[in-house]
Specification:
alpha+beta; 5-stranded mixed beta sheet; 20% strand; 522 residues; 14 strands; Heat Shock Protein 90; membrane; sCache_3; Beta-Lactamase
């Protein structure tokens, strides 16, 4: 790069030097022409010359005069001649009396003119002016030729050459020094990489940024976006170009925007943003040991979270089956023992009463709820609540058919609300109860979950990710305070609303638009 820049500077400087040399030569020649013309006209207008050229011996009078003028002005030659070309004066006395070489016709016509002509002294720039008779403006009695030889002009140009060379060398030195400084700075900023490695690195980095399945954000020290890849745009639902914008201007959730703006280190933090659950990692960028901002990676946790919710529901259902199996074994042992004691009537009464109670709950849920996934969830949560010492009461007026709402979202909303209510009821005084009601009015599904717990202390923050009243050893962002945030996200995703009563006793109400005709299941 330095050699290339130096070569360019050298070519430019030499070109400018050649142009300056040509301009200097043209300027010297123009000055010589002007000087010769003005000198010829001045001598032609001299009364001494006018009188001498018509006198008996013009040479005796004019030769000393013109030689003195020539010496004083540095002119190469001054020749006074008759209209028939006979020289009256000449720097070389041997040429006096001989014919003048060159053009004289314009001067004989009364007009001063200039030309370049090769005479006895070699090529010269000369001016020829007419000498008019005393008292006349048309009668030409003699001619005056004043010339500066080309050699003399060349000497003047050569005299200007040292200054021109100094200027050219100074410009060349400044150009080379500037090129060296730029190359050093470029070398330092690119860490010694040349053009080919930089191009290859850019191509590879661009391919990686577009191909990687993790979102990537690069933020400067002020929290402004410097780079964002395609996956990050998709996950954060960003506009086409957000480079240079502050993270607070990207339309992110308040908590995620605050995390990115603080630029604190973060490892696998779970954030809810829009319709997605994101795992966020953030670390400072320190190229060369100096901090220039932060690198943020984003992973889509939405589908995994939905699967986790469904898995929790299945696990809860399995736990309820285990609990029911344990209870069934106890009831079976009790029934067998009553039979062995000879109390058959009491054994039948005991067995049928327990069976009727369990069947009654199942029949009521299946009859009231037409969504199979939701019905299974309620049966599982009822068993889990019973095992934990909480009574889950389903409102007798509950009646919900097919709603068209995704089953995963229903599980997320109802399951998390019930889990939260059961946990809250356990913190209250007996009797510990949770009441659930579901109904459809005006093409909207309404869900109400109420518990006998202490209530919600901060309704404005209850749906924020990470906000919780539960004791947990889990680090911030890893599963703590996420359930109600997921509820709010699922509700927003389905165009619904969710409200909470501050207490005493927690009360959550959800309203969702149904996507299919819903009513009392048959």
């Amino acid at each position: 790069m330095l050699l290339l820049q130096g070569l360019v500077v050298l070519v430019v400087v030499l070109g400018l030097g050649w142009v300056a040399w040509r301009q200097a030569g043209a300027a010297v020649e123009s000055r010589a022409t002007t000087e010769a013309r003005s000198t010829a006209e001045a001598i032609a207008d001299s009364p001494l010359v006018r009188d001498a050229v018509v006198g008996a011996d013009p040479t005796t009078v004019l030769q000393p005069y013109v030689e003195q003028v020539r010496a004083d002005t540095g002119i190469s030659f001054i020749t006074v001649l008759a209209p028939d070309r006979t020289r009256f004066t000449h720097p070389d006395p041997a040429e006096i009396g001989r014919p003048f070489l060159g053009t004289i016709e314009p001067a004989l016509a009364g007009r001063t003119f200039t030309e370049t002509y090769s005479g006895t002294l070699g090529p010269s720039v000369r001016a020829v002016a007419p000498v008019f008779a005393t008292g006349s403006s048309t009668e030409v009695v003699a001619l005056v030729s004043v010339g500066i030889t080309v050699a003399a002009i060349g000497d003047d140009v050569t005299a200007a050459l040292p200054g021109l060379l100094v200027a050219v060398l100074a410009v060349l030195a400044v150009g080379v020094l500037g090129s060296w400084a730029i190359s050093r700075r470029l070398h330092r900023q690119t860490h010694g990489l040349g053009a080919v490695p930089l191009v290859r690195m850019l191509e590879y980095y661009d391919a990686v940024l577009h191909a990687v399945r993790e979102g990537l954000l690069l933020l400067d020290g002020d929290g402004r976006v410097q780079l964002v890849n395609d996956e990050a745009r998709r996950l954060l639902e960003l506009d086409a170009d957000v480079t240079g914008r502050h993270v607070s201007e990207l339309g992110l959730s308040a908590e995620l925007a605050a995390t990115l703006a603080d630029q604190r280190p973060a490892t696998d933090e779970v954030h809810v943003s829009g319709s997605r659950v994101l795992v966020v990692n953030q670390a400072p960028a320190r190229p060369g040991g100096s901090s220039v901002g932060t690198v943020v990676t984003l992973r889509d946790h939405t589908d995994l979270q939905a699967l986790t919710g469904e898995l929790d529901s299945v696990r809860s259902f399995a736990e309820s089956l285990r609990a029911q199996a344990h209870e069934a074994a106890n009831r079976l042992h009790t029934t067998v023992s009553l039979v062995e004691l000879g109390r058959g009537a009491e054994a039948v009464e005991f067995a049928t009463a327990e069976l009727a109670q369990a069947q009654q709950l199942t029949d009521r849920v299946v009859a009231a709820v037409g969504e199979p996934v939701l019905a299974a969830l309620l049966l599982g949560k009822a068993a889990t609540a019973h095992e934990r010492g909480v009574a889950l009461e389903i409102d007798p007026e509950t009646a919900v058919g097919a709603t068209g709402i995704p089953g995963g979202d229903l599980v997320t909303i109802v399951g998390n609300l019930l889990d939260n209510a059961i946990d809250a009821a356990l913190l209250g005084d007996p009797p510990r109860e949770v009441q659930l009601a579901l109904w459809v009015v005006d093409e909207r599904l309404h869900v109400r979950v109420e518990d006998t717990g202490p209530g919600v202390s901060d309704p404005d923050r209850v749906f924020e990710r990470g906000w919780t009243t539960k004791e947990s050893a889990a680090p911030r962002g890893l599963g703590r305070g996420l359930g109600l945030a997921l509820v709010a996200q699922a509700v927003r995703r389905n165009g619904g609303t969710v409200t909470v009563r501050p207490g005493p006793g927690g009360l959550f109400e959800v309203s969702l638009p149904v996507r299919a005709p819903a009513g009392t299941p048959r």
